[in-house]
Design brief:
single chain; Ankyrin_rpt-contain_sf; 0% strand; DUF3447 domain-containing protein; 60% helix; Serine Threonine Protein Phosphatase 5, Tetratricopeptide repeat; Ankyrin_rpt; 3 domains
Length: 478
């Protein structure tokens, strides 16, 4: 075992272990351990300062992106914490912490349901959501398309509290729904608008409340109602068991799970999965979905059927399915045993997903931190992601060169390109190296302009050596 205190300060190591602890709690949150997790967080450092509360919020949204089935629990956890706000803590900050993390770049069915259940739990009001939509549109009137998904989910509230805004969005939906590359969420809303709004939006409201899409196939697979699914199959003379599911604003995002059996695996719906398997559904491409879903039984069934588990270590690390990772490691894919491809999968999967428990475990096992990914990326560059905690760990590791370029791009330009405000802010406000040479070599201000991140642009413009009239040497127009 490697003594990490030889490479990291006591402060950095303590922070990393703190993050590993909160990740473990959130990624494994269930009804059975809810009270224990709540009690641990309410007495933790994560309620003591504004920045700590924001850090907690960031990790909750990250967990929401990984654990669709637990979204109501995450909302309840936050609402219960908000209920104990007082002058002795900073939990009142939870009221405003989540909108900046979600809008406009992180809006999908996962974050929409999280916001909805938070509103149900009185973290904020329906008026707050309408205000955010109105203010976002006012700031970026040309970006109404990006806000349509949020509107589609909360249309009843918008109509009730701001009819002119509602009319503006409805017109935008109708216009957008007719476009060839319209987002499936908006297209679905546009096609079902008449039915959804009948009787004061009763259909839309019932779908939100029950987390149901209205698509009988999706809903039966999601709830693992095998009898209902069998009925659907039996009523169709030519039912295709290998068909793709229809993406819905009220169901999990497709991601890797497009076919029926992939979707069942991703939802951990064991009974429906077995039914599809017995009826010879195509298993190709199902391994990653099963790992994301986290059902040990489904994963082992796929193993018994000799499915291709290539890349499964990385999939488990990215999905924060550490128990499955350890099972894979113990069976066919040993890590830190002189099999470089396994080590690359493990460490880069963990770093890219800020899987802090696994990162610390791999570092203690002595994994080579100078490994490069299959695309030539180094570990430090891979850590420039959200949440920022993996970056914060590696930036303080004595054996990592934070100035080293990757594929011609510096870590700073990578941070700008990935819109990682925390990493960009670090590079501009620490004194380990001079940024002037880097500004001569890279189009940082142009990259920031293209990405459209106002916070990053402010950081760059405040730097004294920024040339606002610099020539864009890579692109002519953004």
């Amino acid at each position: 075992m490697v003594d990490l205190s030889l490479y990291l300060s006591a402060e950095s190591l303590q922070e990393a272990r703190l993050i590993a602890d909160i990740e473990n709690m959130l990624m494994n949150l269930q009804k059975e351990n809810f009270l224990d997790v709540f009690n641990r967080i309410k007495t933790s450092v994560f309620i003591t300062t504004v920045n700590r509360v924001k850090q907690l919020a960031s990790h909750v949204i990250f967990a929401v992106s990984k654990r669709y089935m637990s979204i109501p629990l995450y909302s309840k956890l936050i609402c219960d914490l908000y209920d104990i706000r007082s002058e002795q803590n900073q939990l009142s900050q939870l009221h405003s912490a989540f909108f900046p993390l979600i809008i406009p770049c992180n809006v999908d069915s996962r974050t929409l349901y999280f916001l909805y259940f938070c509103a149900v739990g009185s973290l904020f009001t329906d008026v707050d959501i309408v205000d955010v939509l109105r203010d976002s549109l006012k700031k970026e009137p040309d970006q109404i398309t990006e806000l349509l998904t949020l509107f589609c989910f909360f249309a009843p509230e918008v109509e009730e509290y701001d009819k002119p805004l509602f009319s503006k969005f409805i017109k935008a939906v109708i216009k957008e729904a007719g476009q060839p590359f319209c987002h499936s969420y908006v297209k679905q809303f546009g096609s079902e608008l008449h039915d959804l709004c009948v009787d004061n939006w009763s259909l839309l409201k019932s779908r939100r409340e029950a987390m149901k899409s209205g698509d009988k196939i999706i809903d039966s697979l999601f709830s693992d109602s095998v009898d209902e699914f069998q009925t659907i199959v039996s009523h169709s003379a030519h039912f295709d068991l290998n068909q793709n599911i229809n993406e819905s604003i009220f169901s999990p995002p497709h991601m890797f799970s497009k076919t029926l059996i992939q979707f069942a695996a991703r939802c951990g719906s064991v009974k429906c999965f077995k039914y599809l398997l017995l009826n010879r559904a195509d298993l190709r491409g199902t391994v990653d979905s099963a790992i994301i879903g986290g059902s040990n039984e489904i994963v082992r069934i796929l193993k018994q059927h000799n499915c291709d588990f290539t890349g499964s270590l990385a999939a488990a690390a990215k999905a924060h399915r550490n128990a499955i990772f350890h099972w894979l490691e113990a069976t066919d894919y040993p890590v830190c045993k002189d099999i470089q491809s396994n080590d690359i999968e493990a460490i880069f999967g963990a770093v890219e997903a800020c899987n802090m428990p696994l990162i610390l475990e791999l570092l203690e096992k002595g994994i080579d931190i100078n490994l490069q990914s299959h695309t030539g990326e180094n570990i430090f560059s891979a850590s420039i992601t959200t949440p920022i905690d993996a970056f914060s760990l590696f930036v303080n590791h004595t054996d990592i060169d934070i100035t080293k370029s990757m594929n011609g791009s510096s870590p700073l330009s990578t941070a700008v390109d990935r819109r990682n405000v925390g990493a960009v802010d670090f590079f501009f406000h620490q004194n380990r190296f001079d940024l002037r040479d880097r500004f001569k070599m890279e189009n940082l201000i142009h990259i920031a302009a293209y990405q459209g991140d106002a916070e990053i642009m402010k950081i760059i413009l405040n730097y004294p050596h920024t040339d606002v009239n610099s020539v864009n040497r890579v692109f002519y127009v953004y």
